[in-house]
Amino acid sequence: MEEEMRRGVPTWQEELASLMDGGLQYDDGSPIGQDSRSGFESVVDGSGSGSESTESLKEQVTGFMKSWGEMLMDLAVGCKDVVQQTLVSEDSVVVRKLRKPAAKLRFLNEYLPEDRDPAHAWPVIFFVFLIALAALSFGSDNKTSVPVLKKLRLHPPGASRVELPDGRYLAYQELGVSSDRARYSLIVPHSFMSSRLAGIPGVKDSLLKDYGVRLVSYDLPGFGESDPHRGRNLSSSASDMIDLASALGIVEKFWLLGYSSGSMHAWAAMRYFPERIAGVAMIAPMINPYEASMSKEETAKTWEQWPRKRKFKYFLARRWPSLLPFFYRRSFLSGYLQPLDQWMSISLGEKDKHVMRDPVFEEHYQRNVEESTRQGTAKPFVEEAVLHVSNWGFNLPDFRLQKKCKTNGVLSWLMSMYSESECELVGFGKPIHIWQGMEDRVAPPSVTDYISRVIPEATVHRLPNEGHFSYFFFCDECHKEIFSALFGEPQGPIEITEEITETHEPDQPETGSSNNSSTTKG
């Protein structure tokens, strides 16, 4: 029974032979005959040579690959049509959602060709930007030499700190003479990516004593060991400076020194607390690059000095500051010390490069960056960058000395022309000294030219062949010139002489001696 059933079921060799007899043909149209079938049978039986079957298999594989290629091409064309119809068409959901944000970028749409729709153009630009960013990140040339970066160290805290009225703590550093012998108090707010340790880099203690200067530098909120300030602005920055001076016992007027972007905080103190300021020194001062009172020529002359990367960072700070941490964490917040000109995106002059190669400068720069980034967050740096390019709340022409008269009408205006009883002098009437390197590429001379135009009372010291760092960093003669211009001839610290006098009052018992301190300026 089983044998009969087995005889009734054809083997797979017989089924294959019947299919071949059923009319399968070669490509030329000739039917597959008995010879072909015997060839297949010989292959199955293992007795044939297999040349004809091998040739047929090649043709089948080739046809299979061609068919798959055609299917993939059809699939790609179909996907392209789907994308065009669902994503890029005028009535698609993506275009409808992107059209409104793209309309807000009208100031950028001016740079697009007139025949391009912003809703279509900006997604393409965005994806091209991502591709370019990926190429820059991973397409480095192995032949170029990569400098070995030093790792930033974390030092134990040890700064002196004072408590401000709002409960925050501000870290500071004092150099020079003591408070009771100081002839002049000089407060120095630091610049970007700096700290209280900067002060006046390399200033000699003997020079401070010769002029009787008490030098105070401090960490801005969020920098070094100072507590952050949530609502920080230039007004609060000026208040912090005044509160620090009061906490340190500086009750009289003090001098200010602002270097580079630190001059921004000096401008703020001049604006909000002019009665506490005795005078101001600024070295390579920086202003808001979007200052409204600058002429078109002054603005163009200033911006043309900066490379595209620096302009792009100013643009981000003004429009999209939330993107700045991405760049900061890849540079000075990466845990490694990068070359100074690299993170500044500036090609420095020869004299600045010579100063930067000095081991003393390198050590100072590394220690200053380590202290500046102590808290490991990008927030204070973003705040500083945003303050630089945002509305300061005042303009530099406000510091110009000018007569302001109270006029309630035409009659009072005519009377003010002949009488000064209703007029007062407004502006900043204290000394302003500015030192500007003519080879400075960070704060170009055009900035100082603008300041000199709007504040003609300022004394400008133009320094040929000097850059951004060469005059201020580790230059004993330069520091002496600055102090001489501010304080005149050196008079030394205040000498304190203690006089012990005995007083005898009549008709009363002797009360002993009393100590009276008299202060004389030597």
UniProtKB/TrEMBL annotation:
It comes from the Eukaryota. Residues 39-54, 513-522 have a biased composition (Low complexity). InterPro entries: AB_hydrolase_1, AB_hydrolase_fold. Pfam families: Abhydrolase_1. Residues 186-473 form the AB hydrolase-1 domain. Coiled coil: none annotated. SUPFAM superfamilies: alpha/beta-Hydrolases. Signal peptide: none annotated. Residues 23-57, 496-522 are annotated as: Disordered. PANTHER family: ALPHA_BETA-HYDROLASES SUPERFAMILY PROTEIN, HYDROLASE, ALPHA/BETA FOLD FAMILY PROTEIN, EXPRESSED-RELATED. This is AB hydrolase-1 domain-containing protein.
